[in-house]
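Hey, resending since the last one bounced:
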Amino acid sequence: MPIKWNEKDKVFHLYNHRVSYFIQLVHGKYPAHLYWGRRVSSLQPASILSYKKRAFSPMTEPSDPSFSLDTLPQEYPAFGNGDFRTPAYQLRTKDGSTITEFIYDSHKIFQGKPPLKGLPAAYVEDSTEADTLVLTLVDSKLGIGLHLQYTIYRDIDVITRSVLFEHLGSDEVEIHHCMSMSVDFHHANWDWLHLHGTWARERHIERQPVHRGIQSISSSRGASSHQHNPFLALLSKHATEEYGDVYGVSLVYSGNFQASIESSPFDTTRLSIGINPFDFIWLLKPGETFQTPEALMVYSSEGLGGMSRTFHTLLRTRVCRGIHRDKPRPVLLNNWEATRFHFSEEKLKEMADAASQLGIELFVLDDGWFGKRDNDKSSLGDWQVDQKKLPHGLKGIAEYMQKKGMQFGLWVEPEMISPDSHLYRKHPDWCLHVPGRKRTLSRNQLVLDLTRKEVCDWLVETLTSLFESAPISYVKWDMNRNMTEVRSAVLPPERQKETAHRYMLNLYQILEILTNRFPHILFESCSGGGGRFDPGMLYYMPQTWTSDNTDAVERLKIQYGTSMVYPAVTMGAHVSDVPNHQVGRMTPMKMRCHVAMAANLGFELNVEKLTKEDKRTVMEELRFYHQIKDLVWYGDMYRLLSPFEGTDTAWMYVASNQERAVVFYYKTLATPNPPFFRLPLRGLNPAWLYSINYGEKKFYGDELMKMGLTMPLIKSDFSSETFYLQAVH
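The structure tokens again:
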């Protein structure tokens, strides 16, 4: 079993073939962090932990004047009894005190990985895939236990962590702060990397040195947000795509989060991630429990690329679920950018006729099919078909698509309500609001209060009827605004700061019911594009609309940054019309296809108006896409050239057996009289011969990786090339 307990030294060792994680119970009661990194067979705790009496560091143990919690590298630290750094948790008792003392009580080690009640989490399909340690700490005065859960996968270099608060005492307490994990590193010579952005500019990469003090990212928007993704990485100073130590953490949660780094004066670094403590308090009564979301922790000695490939494997195979996890995704056509709200049944049929001739497999009807939805000012909540636009209903248009050999998909935005809707006029109190205060609109809509059982029940019943009304095989679940006036009409005053988290718990419950009730439907998550692209949503919906920005050049940065954590199979990417709706840029059809083909390929344009040349290009690229899509979805990704560092971008996908690979190369701006350029590849078998695009000439893998593949001389802006590699035995 890859978790060992050394009774003599009070040390836990979590390990697999490549990674080790050590915890020691110092003085038999304080869980201290010894090591996380490349696999070691054993270590001597005395060589890791050193103690020295330091001025202004409180003496925690009278018998040991050199020992202080202020300098101890802890596994789940508190504030107030010796440690002055950022705490992992904080409780407030009935008398107003926030002082606690949780010390070791017991532990359990077992095979497998239990699910988290009410929350998405990484899973196992067989108990032999992982091993779990539950370390129980108890505050005997409060009668509360903390169950620190660690799981290490045997074949994936991932450790997951979460915490369960269990109240066995007599007086209620408030949880003010509850990180899912905290790790104290023994030095502070790091860079840190995170993914920032805004609507239409999501998940851009930022890397900077760790400085003294606290640096953090967070969301208080009620969603994981466009602005910051719930992911953060610590990198050794020399770490690159291929080399160096990288520690990445990601939160399986879709609501308010915080990830922080604190560098201390003694050159230690504390890394934590969990629910954002801002505007959060959870009342824990006797007999109740509170479960934190799960944190995914990845160590890589192979740079950022190694970290990403580990996250990709875990998210693709042990976070995403259902029949669509391993099932081919259809090439779709979405009508939104072609028609917006203004379409008719006849128009949709004409688009379907043209799409079927190109080989498109799924037609998605976007916003505007319900109520009186001719713009974004009305009808959210009125999920009945607009008979003027669709006289034969959803069933009629879906059956027409089937006759054309295509599946039918539908856009919905179930979490929202329009003030101009029958639902709002009937239930004006069903939205998040504060009595006597204005109700702030965003995109002319309000947010349904999912803390109310009747709202959740109505939503499940309404969507069930809708999804049963026609042969629907795909649903795009959108969420186009963040939370304001965050208050629940059903919670008492002392529980109001639970509203945002309870909303998310109930949303997860709704998604659990609907995805189990309709397992044949491929659900795609969306929040104005990538405003809720996180592991929590992927647990229920195995792909996410990556961004509302469909410009091929902008998408290079968005998809490159997204790939830091998320595999290509989770990204929705569409070929749209030009000039592009977001930036007005003109790019050729070939490049638009090549960018979207590096994810889940779709189209979002008026296919009827394509030129003969563009139609020919689409059909050629679709043939190529069907040849390589399994590599993109399930292969190992290697980022070769960054769009953040120049005008060229390149990435490649390699089959797990190294038999096949595909390389995408993009040039945004041409260079006059350009030099020859060789692109070093990665991930190939160095001893095998590979053909390139079925050419007669063969190249050894080590030649392609060390010397590179010669790129064509490109004389125009916004150009791209693909290279298909096949091993020749």
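DSSP finds 13 helices and 38 strands in the chain.

Sorry for the duplicate.
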